[in-house]
Amino acid sequence: MSQEPNILDPELERNREFLRILARKHLDRRLWSKIDPSDVVQKTLLSAHEKREQIRGSDPLPWLVTALRNDVRDAIRDFGRIDAKERAFQQAVDESVRMVHSWAVADVSSPSQRAMKQEELLRLVQALVQLPEAERIAVELHHLNGWSVAEVADQLQRTEPAVAGLLHRGLKRLRNLMQESE
After folding, report:
1. Quick one: which of 121, 113, 97 has its CA closest to 17?
2. How far lies 4's CA from each of 37, 45, 111, 124, 138, in Å?
3. Where do the domains of the chain lie?
4. pLDDT in tens, 138-148
5. Are 181 and 123 in contact (CB under 8 A)?
6. What is the pLDDT of residues 111-136, one digit of tens each?
7. What is the pTM of this model?
8. Which residues contact 32 (CB under 8 A, 6 or more apart)?
9. Fold of 130-182
């Protein structure tokens, strides 16, 4: 993985882990050796940093999610691997981004409720990144990407019972970490 410089704007920087999870979700794991999700996130945050005056005063999350989606699409296109299967994958990515974006910035009755929802989302992201890698990947693939246990087992090259164990332990740790951060 490439080393990431610290973005000075803390309002943008605090979204790094959330964006990294989205990037991993939207980049087929088989491409990670060619397109590092952290590099895509870095590009998104650098673009946001350059445009911070345009973003300032409003919630940066919708802008960041849209920019990340475009950066993921550009990275795949630049890699030259857009074929029929990847176009279908890109449509799935777009749908997933719309779903996550609508959840992250859903209209609520007040700005304070919206801020509370985003803080809860950031707490979840911070808890996810604290999980051991195998548990985190299993939880992300199964619960965020909607993969079956069999698909996760195939991707991780483990048995279905082993993946079930990873999911069980990962969710238990996630609950504990979320309770600790309250």
Report:
1. 121
2. 12, 10, 32, 22, 25
3. 1-111, 130-182
4. 988 888 888 89
5. yes
6. 777 777 777 778 888 888 899 999 99
7. 0.52
8. 24
9. Arc Repressor Mutant, subunit A (1.10.10)
